[in-house]
Amino acid sequence: MSTTPRPDFARYAVRHGDGRWLYHLPKTDPNTTLAVLADGLAMTQVGDTTWWATDHEVTRITVSTRTYPKPVRYVLHDPDTASVKYPSELTVAEWEQRREANNGIVPDSLWDMYKSVTAEQPPTETHIDGPFTVLDGSEPPATGARTWHVNLIDSITQRPEYAHLFPGYLDGLDEYIHKLIDKMPRVRFNFNGYQGRSGLHVTLDVPFEQPVTKWQANISASTGKKLKSGRTVPVTARRELVLPVPRRVTGSNYAEAIAEWDRQVAFWTGLVTEANVAACNHCGGTGHVPTGAEQYTVGRLLDGTEQPA
After folding, report:
1. What is the percentage of the chain residues whose pLDDT exceeds 90?
2. SS (H, E, C) 52-70
3. Are 89 and 42 in contact (CB under 8 A)?
4. Closest CA to 53 of 137, 148, 143
5. N- to C-terminal Cα distance for the chain?
6. Residue 308 pLDDT > 50
7. What's residue 181's pLDDT?
8. How far is C-alpha 8 from the geometric centre of its chain's CA atoms?
9. Per-residue CA distances from 55 to 64, 91, 131, 185 (Å)
10. Which of 43, 121, 202, 276 is most buried by a 10 A CB count?
11. What is the C-alpha to C-alpha distance for residues 117 and 74, in angstroms, rounded to an integer?
12. Residues 168-190: pLDDT tens digits?
C-alpha cells in the first residue's frame, strides 16, 4: 500500500455550528474513492459535494483510492496461432518494446491477437496532515442552489470552495418574489419595474368582507349587445400595492444571507396575502377601509367595476 503526500490540498477546517467539522477534499472522486478517514475514523460526505464531515478537529485525513488492475503479461487469444513472431505470451517489457518500435503506438496486430492478464493492485492512500486553519461557518451551497457572489481578497479568489464563508450577496430577489406573486390567488396584475419605476407593482381583486354581488347581463355573440339573460357575479374591490423589493440580499456569509433571503420572501409575499379589503355594508360598499400593507397602497381603493386612477 503506497502513501502519497498531497501538499496541494488547502489546510482549512470549517467548524459548523451543529458540532461537525467540515473539510474540502477536491480530489475525492466517487468512482474511485474507497474511504475517507479522519484520524482513522470514517468521515461522511456532505450531500453530493466534495466536502466531508467528522465530529472532531482532525490531525490527519487519509483518502483511500482504488487503483486500477495492472497488466502483468499478454497472452494470445488463440494459443494455436503461436509462432516465432507471435509467441504464446509476451512480458510487459516485450510488449513495450514492440510499442516503441512502432513509434510509440501499439500495433493493431498485437491488440487483435493478444489479451492482457491483469493483477489487482493495493489501494493508494493519500494523507493530508494538519494543522488546519479553522473557519467558523456552515455547509457550502448545494448543487443548483442560488448563486453566492462573494467579495474576496485576491489571495482567496482562486479558492471558490471557501467562498460561502465570506461576505457577499445573493442576486435576483425581486425577480424571485415577482414569480412567486404571479402564482398567488387574487393577483390581477403584477409588474417588476412598471413603466421604468422601481419595485413590484401588484394589483389585487379581493372580495368584500361581507360578500357583495351584482347582476351582469350576457353579451350576444352575434351583435355584441347586452341580452336580457344574465347571471349574478361577485363584486370585488381592487387593491394596488408598490413593494420596494431589493434586488440583492447581502450577508457576512452565505448562511446569513440565505436566512435574510428567506425572511424577506416571507415578508413580501405575506404583505400580498394580508392586503385584504373591508367594505362597509351600512354605506352600501362606498367606504373602503384598507387593512394590511397600508403603507404600500397606491391611490384609492376601487370597486372592481371601475378602472384604476
Report:
1. 40
2. EEECCCCCEEEEEECCCCE
3. no
4. 137
5. 81
6. no
7. 95
8. 27
9. 20, 49, 17, 47
10. 202
11. 6
12. 889 999 999 999 999 998 899 99
The residue type at 259: A
> How much is the pLDDT for 293?
66
How many residues does this entry show for the chain?
309
In this predicted structure, the answer to whether residue 122 has a pLDDT above a threshold of 70 is yes
Cell (9 digits) for 249:
440580499
Half-sphere exposure of 288 (CA within 13 A, CB side): 21
Q: What pLDDT, on the 0 to 100 scale, is given for residue 223?
A: 82
- Which tens digits make up the pLDDT trace of 264-306? 999 999 999 887 665 454 444 444 555 666 666 654 444 443 3
Residue 139 has pLDDT above 80, yes or no: yes
CA distances from residue 8 to 95, 174, 241, 247 in whole angstroms, order as listed? 35, 41, 55, 38
Say if residues 82 and 76 touch (Cβ distance below 8 Å): yes
Residue entry with cell 362597509? 280
Q: Which residues fall within 8 angstroms of residue 242, CB to CB, at 6 or more apart?
A: 197, 199, 200, 201, 202, 296, 298
Within 10 angstroms of residue 163's Cβ, the number of other Cβ atoms is 19
Mean pLDDT, the chain, rounded, equals: 82
Look-up: residue for cell 451551497? 141
Q: Give dist(CA 177, CA 172) in Å, integer.
A: 9
**Measured between alpha carbons, how far is 161 from 77 in angstroms, rounded to an integer?**
49
Report d(CA 29, CA 43) in Å as an integer.
15
Q: Tell me, what DSSP letter sits at residue 97?
A: H
**CB 100: neighbour CB atoms within 10 A?**
11
Say how far apart CA 53 and CA 44 lie, in whole Å. 5
DSSP code at position 140: P
Q: Which residue has the cell 500495433?
A: 107
Q: What is the spatial distance between Cα 253 and Cα 260, in angstroms, rounded to a whole number?
A: 11
pLDDT at 131: 81
